[in-house]
Amino acid sequence: MAVGNRSFDAIVVGTGISGGWAAKELTEKGLKTLVLDRGRMVKHGEYPTATKKLWELPYAGRPTQADLRKQAVAARTGYAVTQATKHWFVNDIDHPYIEKKPFGWVRGYHVGGRSIMWGRQ
């Protein structure tokens, strides 16, 4: 694959657990690898709700009706959209996708994928 005047043996989309590991393995095998990701870079310590107690969060951590409308797909999980976690997920109104069949595509726009959302790895 060529990008501009540079060529690559492999392209990895996303730097979550799987993408990051794939990029590591490919580069260690000597392949010229391009890694693509989108969203903001999250630095260690930038987890605004990680140390908050439930009673320190608005609405005792529960999502508002506005949160549920904005993040309808993630909200279907029953656990993803809370006052402690909603900042990691995509606003489905601003970034919609069409489901031909039910599919819970829970998306976050930040480098590191869901490893950042759940484990801050």
TrEMBL record:
<keyword id="KW-0274">FAD</keyword>
<protein>
    <recommendedName>
        <fullName>GMC family oxidoreductase</fullName>
    </recommendedName>
</protein>
<comment type="similarity">
    <text>Belongs to the GMC oxidoreductase family.</text>
</comment>
<keyword id="KW-0285">Flavoprotein</keyword>
<keyword id="KW-0560">Oxidoreductase</keyword>
<dbReference type="InterPro" id="IPR036188">
    <property type="entry name" value="FAD/NAD-bd_sf"/>
</dbReference>
<dbReference type="InterPro" id="IPR051473">
    <property type="entry name" value="P2Ox-like"/>
</dbReference>
